[in-house]
Amino acid sequence: MTMQSHAQFVAPRARGHIRFGSGGSILFATQGEPLTLEAIEKHVPAVFAQEAHESRSERFVPIPSRFVVESLIKEGFQIVEARQGGSRIEGKSGFTKHRLRLRHATAPTTRTLGMLIPEIILTNGNDGTASYFLEAGLFRLLCLNGMTAKEADFGGIKVRHSGRADQVVSSVIEGSYQVIEAMPALIDRAGDMDATKLDARHMNAFATAALELRWNSRNPEAPQAPIEAAVLLNARRREDQGNSVWSLLNVAQENLIKAGQSYRTQPTEARPKGTERTVSPIKDAGTDSAINRALWVLASELQKVAA
């Protein structure tokens, strides 16, 4: 598999800013241009929180993400996405868990598999819900999807809010380069997935398990899935049609995360025919990462079994 620096490629990702929930926000990079600190501060203010939320005890010492971000930029990292969660608690949205997706010219890419651009996913929170957490991500140019990759020997790197600020920043930078070192193995795993073909039984089993990641049918109090598992197998583009584990992962991931499928609600006395609605996309950073991570593990294990 041919790998090279992603600096040669310009990802045609549309510029955008999406607000959701109570203070939730997603900011996308412009075409070929990384996000600026000014834009992040304006639209994703949780990244620039200087203090901990008032709900934290005095023992919780936050290390503002700004210190880390500025140091990463000096190291040649570029931010291509920033998002923060919302909160119904007044004044807390500026302190919530937030996530950044970064790229570095030294990370390997491949023109195959829909062209993969490795990314580092950095999560933090000044409301006490998160330490600094670094994960490996893959951005697929073909469908503009961002994945979170998780292997048995590389699940991520955690850096706690403890010690001097410069020590924490140094640990995050060191961890970022460790993530880059893990990239070739993750891309190789994607290649293995692409080479492994599945039968209908395997694909249906994967779709059923994937549906449970968003809608837990075993919990009667949880919202039930408005779509059937088979819907997750519907490819949105010709290049994704096929029976490889890689195709299955990408199709299911896009259908779960981006959603948009039409469905009709259960009939009621007021609306005997139900109501036509569409499945909402997942915007919360924590939920997005959790589902992406679980999908990767499912696909990776399925590849090993099917191979």
What this model shows, in words?
The protein has helices at 37-43, 65-74, 165-195, 200-214, 245-257, 285-306; strands at 3-5, 16-20, 24-28, 78-84, 98-103, 108-110, 116-124, 132-140, 145-149, 157-159, 262-264, 276-278. It is an alpha+beta fold and 307 residues long. It has two domains: 3-194, no CATH class; 200-306, no CATH class. Strand 8 (132-140) and strand 9 form a beta hairpin. Helix 4 (200-214) runs parallel beside helix 5 (245-257), helix 4 (200-214) packs antiparallel against helix 6 (285-306) and helix 5 (245-257) packs antiparallel against helix 6.
What's a quick, concise take on this entry?
The chain is of the alpha+beta class. It is built from six helices and twelve strands.
How would you describe the oligomerization state of the chains in this entry? Answer: single chain
How many alpha or pi helices?
Answer: 6
Percent helix: 25-40%
The low-pLDDT segments are: 2-14
Element-by-element helix/strand order: EEEHHEEEEEEEHHHEEH
**Mind describing the biggest β-sheet?**
8 strands, antiparallel
Total domain units:
2
Q: Give the class from helix and strand content and strand pairing.
A: alpha+beta
Tell me what portion of residues adopts beta-strand conformation: 15-25%
Tell me the distance between the termini.
Answer: 19 Å
Overall morphology: globular
Topology, number of strands: 12
Mean pLDDT across every amino acid position: 83
Question: Radius of gyration from the CA trace?
Answer: 20 Å
